[in-house]
Amino acid sequence: MQTIQFDFGGRRHTIKTFDDGASVKTAKDIIVGASYRFPDTSSGFSSVVDLGAHVGEFTIMAAIYWPQATVHAFEPAPQAIPLLRENCRPYPNIVIHEQGFSLTPGRGQFFVNSISTVASRSIAPDYQLPGLTWTTIEADYVDAKTIMDLKPGVVKIDIEGPEVDFIKAAHSELQHVPLIYVEFHREDHRVDIDRLLLRTHALITAHILDPNRGDLLYLRREQPLFPKD
């Protein structure tokens, strides 16, 4: 287990994560603002959704940055949930949902790999790496309507593959959401995300790890959250 301390919002905070390289890098990238950068000025959001919260890296920072908001952290991975709960305990505006997103809500398959919980996923993996094995378990899922009924002003979508499915299912509501963070896992997914979101939003930042992986931040047009260049 790794314990990371960081300063944010004028206070020092502590988060615990798994000690594999992917988990540590994910946490540090979010903490330093390389991934899921926060806007330069805040706004009065009353609800934030973190879809794919892992151990709470973005969740905690969102709870600090938007203290007036209820931050809804969705995480179906049973390995991550105990740490997510421990990390989020000091922040009363966080609500944890032990659920993921699926087009078919209810109990369903969940795929856990032997290297890192960061890559746990709701869809069957289609790649092989030396030394990597996958275990199939069950998890709880909700649909896009259940998530969007929370009326979020900010949505972060990091669900290891079905991001485009969620955006399509929630599109009529997402087009009114001021800030949308989304991770992509394939270049064609990134193209689809752009096609769907650029109708109503502008791409503000792109953190690209390689052509098939990165995270994007979209701002609804006319939303005065970022200073103009």
Name its key features.
globular, single chain, Rossmann fold, 7 helices, 229 residues, 7-stranded mixed β-sheet, 12 strands
Summary, kept brief:
With about 230 residues, this protein is an alpha/beta fold.
CATH homologous superfamily identity:
Vaccinia Virus protein VP39
**Termini, distance in Å?**
42 Å
Strand order of the largest sheet: 5-4-3-9-10-12-11
Largest sheet: 7 strands, mixed
| Percentage of residues in DSSP E strands | 25-35%
Count of discrete domains: 1
SS content category: alpha/beta
The chain-level mean pLDDT equals: 92
Top CATH class:
Alpha Beta
The helix content, as a percent range, equals 10-25%
CATH architecture annotation: 3-Layer(aba) Sandwich
Topology record:
Blueprint: E1 2-8, E2 11-17, H1 21-31, E3 47-51, H2 57-65, E4 70-74, H3 81-88, E5 94-97, E6 100-101, E7 106-113, E8 134-142, H4 144-148, E9 154-157, H5 163-169, H6 171-174, E10 179-184, H7 187-197, E11 201-210, E12 213-220
Parallel strand pairs: 3-4, 3-9, 4-5, 6-8, 9-10
Antiparallel strand pairs: 1-2, 7-8, 10-12, 11-12
What does this structure look like?
With 229 residues, the chain is an alpha/beta fold. It has one domain: 3-Layer(aba) Sandwich (Rossmann fold). α5 runs parallel beside α7.
